[in-house]
Amino acid sequence: MLDALGGTVLEYQALYMEKNAHLEQFLEQVEPFEFYREIFPEGSFERQGHYEDNKPNGIAVSLPGKGGSVSGIALEIEGDGKAKRYIITDDLLKLDDLRETDFTILSPISYWGGKRSGKMARFLYALVFDIDGVGMPQLRDVLHQMNKDILPKATFVVNSGTGLHLYYVLSEPVPMYPHNQHYLKELKYSLTRQIWNRFTSSIKKPQMQGILQGFRVVGSGTKLGKGYPVVAYRLGDRVELDDFLEYIPASNGERQKLQGILRKSSMPLAEAKEKYPDWYERRIVNGERRGRWTVKRDLYDWWLRRIRDEIRVGHRYHGIMTLAIYAKKCSIEEDELRQDAYSLLLPYDEMSIEDINRFTRDDIEAALSMFNEDYVTFPRDDIARLSGLTMPVNKRNWRKREVHLQGARAIQEINDRANGTDWRNGNGRPVGSGTAQEEVYQWRKQHPEGRKADCHRDTGLDPKTIRKWWEKK
After folding, report:
1. Torsions phi, psi of 297, nearest 5?
2. For position 110, what pLDDT does the model report?
3. Which one of 87, 217, 238, 461 has the fewest CB atoms closer than 10 angstroms to its CB?
4. Helix, strand, coil in percent for the chain, rounding step 5
5. How far apart are CA 102 and CA 421, in angstroms?
6. Eight-class DSSP state of 203
7. In this predicted structure, what is the pLDDT of residue 284?
8. CA distance 169 to 379
9. What is the C-alpha separation between 334 and 370, in angstroms, rounded?
């Protein structure tokens, strides 16, 4: 992603060197092995060749020549265009092979098997925040705010090339149970809004990232090239997870919300087994997936239209990522998804302002990895944050208006028979509420940020009628 500093590649390279010089003046540079050994202490992973250890491992993805972020694992694109996964065992020696790559990503998470999904995640070892738009004034202010206890003090500050990665290494790894993942995600979003502020970034709107997000391997190349590697510096100590709550304002209710989620998240599995034996048998013992509905393809088509017309630089990857999620949710064939995604390659790349921010096939391939059953319940609010697009509620559940109204009338008739009423005789909607003006008014109440085109798509009203009543009431 392009940050808001502007400038040429040479100017970015000069800025990278200046940031390193400033960090070296005040902090201790940490070698890659020492950096990852502190995140993943000895014994965290399975020993090489010792499958009897029955432990999870780190999983590393290398996309040469292009920057960006991918959740979870390190991959390398080979000649056939496929991503190569690297399993990081307890000796961490595989990381040495990754230092010569252009774009290698690793998340501070251990996984079972070789699949980088939330379902296979075992432990989270650190919370990491990626800040773009970091020039020298912003770098100085990041350090100032952490030293003055305005922001939590990071364990490591990492020069990622054009931005910063702030690593908060946890005093104890957190088990990645679904309820813990929910709490960690909300916590990270709340902290991002505090860490990414008008003094620490030249970009006004924070870019939200999930807890499964991966980050460039320390020692490997940045988007500026292998001659400008990712460098880590030590600042603070390990952190307690609950200490983060002190840095979230109590006035807006976020801290109370997180404390409530934390209380719900603290139920031990043994207690859950006793209280919810059926759930425990199905989900833990039998490993069954959570049930879900298959949604009609209207949702997929709607989102494809939106990311063609409304997406902005900084959100292109997440737009296609969400398209992949909706494709799985709507039972769209992978071939159709890939064709639609690649149709966006040229228009997305033409949005690029600088060479360093080109949109490539690697970005599309990374986004298409979300075509996975594990992500079909990805929350609506998260999609809105990541894509930068509003998510109006469709109360018809993506059904055609005619079908939706047939169901509503059938329910009304059942209620009439039960209550001895007739909704057509004064027992239904108020007089005048069925007019086009009222329909437009009600739609705008439910979708305050919606557009006329969205109103037309949802209600079926004539565009001229919508324009006539848009500002009335």
Report:
1. -70, -5
2. 93
3. 238
4. 45, 15, 40
5. 71
6. -
7. 61
8. 26
9. 11
DSSP string, 23-80: HHHHSEEE-HHHHHHHHS-TTSSPPTT-GGG---BEE--B-TT-----BS--EEE-TT
Residue type, 32: P
pTM of the model: 0.57
Q: Residue 23's pLDDT is what? A: 95
Q: Are 193 and 253 in contact (CB under 8 A)?
A: no
CA dist., res. 75 & res. 85, Å (int): 5
- Identity (one letter) of the amino acid at 87? I
Low-confidence residues of the chain: pLDDT under 70: 1-7, 61-83, 250-273, 275-276, 279-294, 354-356, 374, 393-409, 415, 419, 422-434, 473
Say if CB 244 and CB 134 are below 8 A apart. no
Angle at 155 between CA 150 and CA 157, to 5 degrees: 85
Token representation of residue 120:
């296979």
CA atoms of 132 and 148, how far apart (whole Å): 22
**Rounded-to-integer distance, Cα 367 and Cα 324, Å:** 7
How many helices and strands, by DSSP H and E, does the chain display?
A: 18, 14
294-333 pLDDT, tens digit per residue, is 678 899 999 999 999 999 888 898 899 899 999 998 989 9
pLDDT tens-digit readout, 75-128:
344 444 456 788 999 999 988 888 878 788 899 999 988 777 787 888 999 999
Please give the distance of CA 196 from its chain centroid, rounded to a whole number. 16
Phi first, then psi: give them for residue 316, nearest 5 degrees.
Answer: -60, -45
Cβ-in-10-Å burial (0-12, 13-18, 19+) of 255 comes to: middle
**Beta-bridge mates of residue 109:** 124
Of 268, 253, 303, give the one whose Cα is nearest residue 454. 303
The alpha carbon of 129 is separated from its chain's Cα centroid by a whole number of angstroms, namely: 12
Task: Output the DSSP codes for 64-128.
Answer: TT-----BS--EEE-TTSPEEE-EE-TT-THHHHHTT-SSBEE-SEEESTT--SGGGEEEEEEEE
- Contact by Cβ (8 Å): 452, 466: yes
Residue 289 has what DSSP assignment? P
Residue type, 182: H
Alpha-carbon distance of 1 to 134, in angstroms, equals 13
What is the C-alpha to C-alpha distance for residues 118 and 122, in angstroms, rounded to an integer? Answer: 9
Buried b (16+ CB within 10 A) or exposed e, 280-299: beeeeeeeeeeeeeebebbb
> Residue 242 and residue 239: Cα distance in Å, rounded?
9
- The secondary element (H helix, E strand) that includes residue 165 is strand 164-175
473's enclosing H/E stretch is none
